[in-house]
Please model this.
Amino acid sequence: MALILKYPGGNPIGEFDGVDGEVTTVKGGEVGTVVSVTMGSDAAAADADGSDGYVGANQRPAVTVTLADGARPLGLIDDGNSPHYGTLFGSVLGATVGQQSFGPGSTGTVLGPHTAAASGKLTFWTKPGTYGVTLDAVDTTPSTGLTLTNTTLSIGDPLYATASGLLTPNSSESFETDLVVARFLNFETNGSLVTTPVSLVSATKPIPFNIAVIEFAPPIG
Model:
C-alpha cells in the first residue's frame, strides 16, 4: 500500500525506471536494488529508451524488488498502488451508487492509476532513517512475519529482506545470510483521531490502516 516517510534522514537518491513486469505491482515499502537492464529489445523500444536520455553500452539502470546475494545498493521504494496513494478516486465495492470506499483497506476495483503508470519511475530511498511500511507490503506470515499476530517481535529486533523485497523478522527468509537491513520499532495506526462510520464509506468493513515503524539502516557494501 505505501511507504510512510517519518524521519527519512535526507532525500531519495533519485527516481529510476522500474524493471518491466514489476514496476506497476510495487506496493511501496519494499526493499529494492538498482540493476542494469538491456535497453529495448526491438527498435521502437530502444528508441523510447534513447528518448529518456540513455546512451552508451545498450544498458540502463532500473529498480527491482528481486534480490539476490550481494545485491547493492539497497533502498526502500516509495511508490505504489491502492488504496493509500496512486489511486486518485478510491475504489468501488459494488456496482451501485453509494458503494464506494475511499478508506485504506478497500478490496474493491481501483479507480485510479499506480504512481508509476505514466512515468515508469520508482523513487528510491537509501539513507538511514525512520520509516513506516503498511502491513500489506511486508512478510505477512502470521506467526513469523512482520505482523500484529507475531508475538515474538520486540522493539529493536533485526529485520531482513526476502528475495522478493519484503521486510521480515525471520532471518531464515533473508535473501542474503544474516543481512540486517532495518530494526523494528513499533506498530502504529494512521494516527487519526477521527473515525468515519463504515456505513458512510463502504459496503464492507475496511481493513485497519496499520503500519510497521522501522529504523532503516542498509549496509553500504
Notes: The chain has one domain: 3-216. Residues 202-208 have pLDDT under 50 and may be disordered.
